[in-house]
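About this split. The held-out portion is used to measure sequence recovery: a designer receives only the structure tokens and must propose an amino acid at every position. Recovery is the fraction of positions where the proposal matches the reference. Here is one held-out target exactly as it appears in the evaluation file.
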């Protein structure tokens, strides 16, 4: 039991955007270090543990079963097309049945240059509508401690993730400074890297590469940038499984719960 308490202290600092009450912390420890056995009707809120094997794992005494506390989402940050930049605005967008798509904004690209109603036409697209976020070019780099020279090479996905992470922490009532240095983890689902393609396009692209190019456009940095900026010291992972990336990222985090 002495070692069990020591392990509890080890996990005491583990935090994320989830409810981390003492009950859940204890259960998180049990799930990882105790083995589940059959239920016999005894009080499941108490668990006597005995050393198992030669490792630091523990085994639940026969006749008891650990009870897993539910995982809680306590903060949300979001940016969606249609101006939905908060959970409330996104909910209203859904309730009203609003079509958040629109024609390609003129500052993105010349839609008439690429649009063609013939789906067989090579190098063309058959639609001129899509879901677009606003003000992608307006990023407060100084707020996140990023120098202007580095910010210009920063993938817009990294910029948005920093913003919504801050908003999620704020929505959860978390003090960012208190999370710095803790075992807070970051799991991100990613897919395309358009900014990387734009920087690497063309025969002269190698002359455009700068000191911050790699950290500004690599997939791993979608998660690592958040960990670095906010000082999180837990696992930091970007998951690419195409369309299921975000779902798999959540699943990978739950595996550690």
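Reference sequence for scoring:
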């Amino acid at each position: 039991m002495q070692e069990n308490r020591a392990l509890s202290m080890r996990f005491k600092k583990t935090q994320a955007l989830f409810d981390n009450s003492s009950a859940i912390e204890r259960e998180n420890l049990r799930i990882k270090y105790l083995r589940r056995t059959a239920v016999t009707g005894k009080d499941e809120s108490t668990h006597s543990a005995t050393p198992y094997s030669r490792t630091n794992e523990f085994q639940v005494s026969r006749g008891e079963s650990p009870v897993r506390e539910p995982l809680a989402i306590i903060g949300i940050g979001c940016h969606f097309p249609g101006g939905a930049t908060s959970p409330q605005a996104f909910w209203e967008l859904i309730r009203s049945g609003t079509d958040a798509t629109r024609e390609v904004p003129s500052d993105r690209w010349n839609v008439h240059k690429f649009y063609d109603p013939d789906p067989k036409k090579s190098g063309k697209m058959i639609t001129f509508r899509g879901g677009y976020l606003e003000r992608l070019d307006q990023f407060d780099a100084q707020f996140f401690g990023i120098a202007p020279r580095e910010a210009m090479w920063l993938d817009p996905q990294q910029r948005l993730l920093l913003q919504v992470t801050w908003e999620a922490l704020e929505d959860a009532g978390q003090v960012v400074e208190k999370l710095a240095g803790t075992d807070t983890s970051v799991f991100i689902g990613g897919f395309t890297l358009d900014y990387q393609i734009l920087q690497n396009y063309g025969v002269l692209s190698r002359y455009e590469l700068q000191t911050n190019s790699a950290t500004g456009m690599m997939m791993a940095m979608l998660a690592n940038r958040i960990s670095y900026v906010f000082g999180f010291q837990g696992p930091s992972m970007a998951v690419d499984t195409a369309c299921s990336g975000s779902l798999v990222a959540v699943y990978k985090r739950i595996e550690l719960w």
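Annotator remark: The chain is about 35% helix and 5% strand.
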